[in-house]
Design brief:
With about 280 residues, the protein is of the alpha/beta class. It has helices at about 125-140, 155-160, 180-190, 215-220, 230-240, 245-260, 270-280; strands at about 25-30, 35-40, 45-55, 55-60, 70, 75-80, 80-85, 120, 145, 170-175, 200-205. A seven-stranded mixed sheet has the order 1-7-6-2-3-4-5, with no helix packed on it. Strands 9-8-10-11 form a four-stranded parallel sheet, with helices on both faces. The longest helix has 18 residues, at about 125-140. The protein is elongated.
C-alpha cells in the first residue's frame, strides 16, 4: 500500500508528468500575518504564531472563520501559490562592537551611578521600548528612564522635581501634533521661564508607541487605522487578528511586538531621532 508523505519531493508538484519537473520549495522565513496554504489538506490561514512542542516547532494558521490549526514547520506549504519551506526568522543582532542603538560598545564598561537628570516617557510600553534599544547606552551614561503615565500631570511633576542645570529633564510625548491636548501641554512647559535650558519636551506623531515599531517587523504591511472613540490598542489587535478580549491580551500583544524589536533599525526614524536628541540633552556636562 502506498503511503502519502507531506514532506516528499512530489507533495507540491504541479504535475508528475515527465515534461514538468516538480517545483522545489524555496526557504522562506515565517512572518506574522503571512497567508499560507497547507498543501496536504488545502487549509488556508494567516500565521498567528509558532510554538515549540515535543514533536518540534509548529506554525499556527487562522482561517477566515477564526479557526486555528497547527502544522509542522518546514516544507509542505504554498505561499501565493508557490511551494515554500518555512523557517523560523533569523534573530537580528547588533553589529559586532555595537549596541542595539548602533552606538559603539565599550568593552567592560560598567553602569554609571545615576545622574541627577531624567528622561520621562508617557507609559510603561514607551519605557520598555527605549530600554530595549538604548538601555546599554543609558546605563553607561547613568540616565534613568521613568514612565509618567501621561502628560496631564507633567506640570506638577516638574514642580516637584525642580530641574536645574545639573538635574535636567527630557520628556518624550506621544502624539505630539499641532492642535492636540498634548501639544498645548508641551507648549506651556516650553514657555515656563523656570524650565528654559533645563527641560526639553519633544514628541513623536504616533497615537501610541506601538506605531513607532516598523510594521514589517510585526509581520504586517501597515498599522491599521482605528476610528476615534474605539480603544486604540484593542482595535489594533482586532484588526491584525490577534487576541483582543481584555487588558491581558493587550499586554500579551505588546510582549509579542517588543519581542520582535532587536535594533534601532526596527523603529521609525521619527522616534529614534527624538530619543537620541533627549539623551544628548540630559547628558550634557
Amino acid at each position: 500500500m502506498n503511503t502519502f508523505d507531506r514532506y516528499g519531493s512530489d507533495v507540491l508538484s504541479a504535475t508528475s508528468s515527465a515534461s514538468h519537473r516538480p517545483k522545489k520549495s524555496v526557504p522562506v522565513e515565517l512572518k506574522l500575518g503571512m497567508v499560507l496554504e497547507d498543501a496536504m489538506s488545502g487549509y488556508v490561514g494567516a500565521v498567528v504564531g509558532a510554538q515549540k512542542t515535543t514533536a518540534g516547532v509548529v506554525v499556527n494558521l487562522e482561517d477566515r472563520r477564526g479557526s486555528v490549526r497547527a502544522f509542522p514547520l518546514g516544507p509542505g506549504f504554498l505561499l501565493e501559490g508557490e511551494p515554500v519551506d518555512l523557517r523560523l526568522p533569523t534573530k537580528k543582532k547588533a553589529a559586532p562592537g555595537r549596541t542595539a542603538s548602533g552606538s559603539r560598545a565599550v568593552a567592560g564598561a560598567k553602569a554609571r551611578v545615576a545622574r541627577g537628570s531624567r528622561i520621562w516617557v508617557e507609559g510603561k510600553h514607551d519605557a520598555e521600548l527605549v530600554e530595549k534599544i538604548w538601555g546599554d547606552d543609558l546605563r553607561i551614561e547613568g540616565v534613568v528612564v521613568e514612565p509618567l503615565g501621561g502628560l496631564d500631570d507633567v506640570a506638577d511633576k516638574l514642580a516637584e522635581f525642580s530641574p536645574d542645570k545639573n538635574h535636567r529633564v527630557g520628556i518624550l510625548a506621544d502624539h505630539l501634533v499641532t492642535g492636540t491636548k498634548e501639544s498645548k501641554i508641551a507648549e506651556a512647559v516650553r514657555r515656563d521661564p523656570r524650565y528654559r535650558e533645563v527641560v526639553h519636551i519633544i514628541g513623536h506623531p504616533y497615537v501610541d508607541i506601538w506605531q513607532a515599531v516598523k510594521p514589517h517587523v510585526v509581520g504586517i504591511s501597515q498599522w491599521p487605522v482605528v476610528p476615534r472613540g474605539e480603544d486604540w490598542k484593542t482595535g489594533i489587535l482586532r484588526r491584525i487578528g490577534w487576541p483582543h478580549a481584555d487588558h491581558k491580551d493587550v499586554a500579551r500583544g505588546w510582549v509579542r511586538i517588543l519581542g520582535k524589536v532587536t535594533t534601532i533599525a526596527d523603529v521609525e526614524p521619527t522616534l529614534s531621532g527624538r530619543v537620541e536628541e533627549l539623551i544628548d540633552f540630559v547628558t550634557v556636562d
